[in-house]
Write a structure and sequence with these properties.
The chain has 386 residues and is α/β, with parallel strands linked by helices. The strands form two sheets. It has a nine-stranded mixed sheet. The chain has a six-stranded parallel sheet with strand order 3-2-1-4-5-6. It is globular. The structure holds nicotinamide-adenine-dinucleotide. The site of nicotinamide-adenine-dinucleotide has 25 residues, from helix 1.
C-alpha cells in the first residue's frame, strides 16, 4: 500500500479530526508539513500519536517542498480561495474544507479559474454526502419511492455549548466565516439541492441575534448539575473570551424559505441554543414521506397510502459530534478516489452551488426581500464557461 505524503494548510480542529478519521479507515500517511500560525489541531493529533510534520512559514514554502499526494486545506473560510489558488499552482490533489469559498464574488473567481485552466483533483469536505443515512435518503428519492418530491421541512438546532463556541470562534465574524448558515448548514443546502434536483429560484429569510447578546449575559450561567456553561471549548484562532460580549456580527438563529425552480418548496429553521438538539429533514412526496433524523441517525419512511407501522432504519454509528461516522466514511471515499479513481460523492460545482444558495438566503435576510436567484445563476453559469 502506498504511503501518502500530506501537506496541511490550516491545521485546526477539523483537519486534525479528518486526519484521525483517515487513520481509522486504514490510510497509510505521514503529515510532511503544515502552515498554521497557531495550530489548534495539534492536541487532537498528539492524542492519536500523529506527528504534524515540519512547520512552514507560508503555503508557498510548504508547497515548494513537494511532491505531495494530498494538500489538505482547513483554514478559516475567508482564506479558502487564496489557499486553493496556491494549491492549484502546485498541482497536487487537494482536499479542502467547506464552504468551498466565502462570498459570491469568490465563487465566480473560483468558477472562472476552474473553467480556464486545468486543476488537480479537488475534493470538498461536504461530509454529509458520505453519511450512510444521507446516501440512503438520496437513493430513495432518486429511486422514486417518495413519488414526486413536493416539499421539505428541515432543521438544525444546536446545544448551547456549540452555539457559545460559534459566538466566540472566528465564525462569529462575517469577514472570516461568511455567515452562520454558510458555515454551519451549507452541508444541508447541498443535499436539499441534490434531492430537489433543481436550483433555488426564490429565497426569503429572517434571522438575527437574540441569544448571544450583552443583555442576556448572566441569565444562564450553569447547567442544573452545576457545570459551568459556555466555557467548554477552546475558541481558537482570533477567539473571543465571552460568548455574550464578543464582536459577533452573524446571526444566532435564522429561518429560510426556498422555492426551487421545479416547484419543490422548503422551509428551514436553525437555532444555536436549544435544549432539544435536532438536525432533521422531513421530505413529503406524493407517494411517501421520509424523515431523516441526523442526530439519532434514524430514518423513517411510510408510503402515503400505507396504514401499517412506518419502516424504521437505525444506522449504527452515533458520535457526539453529530457526524455519526461520516468522517470515517468520507475518509474512505477520499482514499477510494485518490487510489482507485472512484468518483467522490460531491463535486466542486455542487459545493459552489450550495454556497451560492446559502449566500442568496443571507442576502434575502439582509435586504428584507424575496431574492430572485436568476441573476446569480446567470453570473455563475457565465463564470463556469470561462
Ligand atoms: N466538514 C465539516 O463538517 C466541518 C466541521 C468543522 C469545520 N469545518 C471547516 O473546516 C475549516 C476549519 O474549521 P475548524 O473548525 O478546524 O477551525 P479551527 O479554528 O479549529 O481551525 C482553523 C485553523 O486555521 C488556522 N489559520 C488561521 N490563519 C491561517 C493562515 N493564514 N494560514 C494557515 N492557517 C491559518 C488557525 O490557526 C487554526 O488552527 C473551516 O473552513 C470550517 O468551515 C468543516
Amino acid at each position: 500500500m502506498k504511503r501518502h505524503r500530506i501537506a496541511v494548510i490550516g491545521l485546526g480542529q477539523r483537519i486534525a479530526h479528518v486526519l484521525c478519521a483517515m487513520a481509522d479507515v486504514g490510510w497509510d500517511y505521514e503529515v510532511a508539513g503544515h502552515v498554521d500560525p497557531a495550530p489548534v489541531g495539534l492536541p487532537i493529533l498528539a492524542e492519536r500519536g500523529i506527528a504534524p510534520g515540519r512547520a512552514y512559514a507560508d503555503p508557498k514554502a510548504l508547497l515548494a517542498d513537494g511532491p505531495f499526494d494530498l494538500v489538505m486545506i482547513g483554514s478559516p473560510n475567508h482564506l479558502h480561495l487564496e489557499h486553493l489558488l496556491a494549491a492549484f499552482e502546485a498541482g497536487y490533489p487537494i482536499f479542502a474544507e467547506k464552504p468551498i469559498v466565502r462570498t459570491a464574488e469568490e465563487t465566480f473567481t473560483l468558477a472562472r479559474r476552474l473553467a480556464d485552466k486545468a486543476t488537480p483533483p479537488l475534493f470538498i469536505g461536504l461530509v454529509m454526502r458520505s453519511m450512510p443515512i444521507v446516501r440512503e435518503t438520496i437513493a430513495r428519492v432518486d429511486g422514486g419511492q417518495l413519488g414526486e418530491l413536493i416539499s421539505i421541512d428541515a432543521t438544525e438546532h444546536l446545544h448551547p455549548e456549540h452555539g457559545g463556541y460559534l459566538a466566540r470562534n472566528w465564525r462569529r465574524k462575517q469577514a472570516w466565516g461568511g455567515s452562520y448558515l454558510l458555515d454551519k448548514v451549507c452541508h444541508d443546502f447541498d443535499i436539499f439541492g441534490r434531492l430537489a434536483g433543481s436550483r433555488a429560484a426564490k429565497v426569503a429569510s429572517f434571522g438575527g441575534r437574540r441569544i448571544f447578546t450583552p443583555q442576556r449575559d448572566g441569565k444562564l450561567t450553569a447547567y442544573d448539575d452545576g457545570e459551568a456553561a459556555y466555557a467548554l471549548r477552546d475558541a481558537g484562532w482570533q477567539g473571543a473570551n465571552d460568548a455574550f460580549h464578543s464582536d459577533m456580527d452573524v446571526t444566532d438563529h435564522q429561518i429560510a424559505m426556498v422555492e426551487y425552480a421545479n416547484q419543490v418548496r422548503l422551509s428551514f429553521h436553525a437555532n444555536s441554543h436549544v435544549a432539544l438538539q435536532e438536525r432533521r429533514w422531513y421530505l413529503a412526496g406524493t407517494d411517501g414521506t421520509l424523515i431523516a433524523d441526523l442526530v439519532r441517525n434514524r430514518l423513517l419512511f411510510r408510503g402515503t397510502m400505507a396504514k401499517g407501522r412506518p419502516e424504521r432504519m437505525d444506522f449504527v454509528t452515533r458520535t457526539d459530534d453529530n457526524h455519526n461516522g461520516a468522517d470515517q466514511a468520507m475518509a474512505a471515499d477520499l482514499k477510494a478516489s485518490l487510489e482507485a479513481g472512484a468518483a467522490f460523492p460531491v463535486t466542486p460545482g455542487d459545493s459552489m452551488e450550495a454556497g451560492l444558495t446559502v449566500m442568496a438566503i443571507d442576502r434575502a435576510m439582509d435586504e428584507g426581500a424575496v431574492v430572485d436567484c436568476a441573476p446569480m445563476w446567470a453570473a455563475y453559469d457565465a463564470a463556469t464557461t470561462g
